[in-house]
Amino acid sequence: MRPMQPMKAPERWWPEVLGEHPNSAGGQNETRYAFFANQKRLAVDLGQGEVCLYDTDDHQISGVQQQQVGNSRDVTFTSQHGEVDLEQLNRV
Q1: Alpha carbon distance 30, 44 (integer Å)
Q2: Model confidence band, residue 55 (pLDDT cutoffs 50, 70, 90)
Q3: Predicted TM-score (pTM) above 0.70
Q4: Nearest to 31 by CA among 52, 15, 12
């Protein structure tokens, strides 16, 4: 039996200025996110080839949920304050 190997960092798809190591990152279906606590930034790619940045203020993003109804997608993030919709965050 071989010892466990460390997990590889996700391949960077977000702007270089945010750095190489997000505090949390993940995705579901075509949506992916990366959260950078020190910069208070959330990078989101909804699968359309455009990465959007959001100011997270005091939210510590730790997860994402996605609901798709027809052509519409509802993306909600989890923080220490509960659920956070993208519409609640300021786009930068």
Answers
A1: 11
A2: very high
A3: yes
A4: 52
Distances (CA, A) of 90 to 1, 8, 37, 39: 49, 31, 15, 14
Q: What are the tokens at 61?
A: 């993003």
How many other C-beta atoms can be found within 10 angstroms of the C-beta atom of residue 22? 22
Give the Cα separation of 45 and 39 in Å (integer).
18
Residues in the chain: 92
Q: What is the pLDDT of residues 4-50, one digit of tens each?
A: 766 665 678 999 999 999 999 988 777 889 999 999 999 999 887 78
What span, in angstroms and rounded, lies between the C-alpha atoms of 59 and 23? Answer: 12
Beta strands in the chain (DSSP E): 24-28, 31-36, 41-45, 51-55, 63-69, 72-79, 82-85, 90-91
Determine the Cα–Cα distance for residues 35 and 81; give it in Å rounded to an integer: 15
Say what the pLDDT of residue 7 is.
60
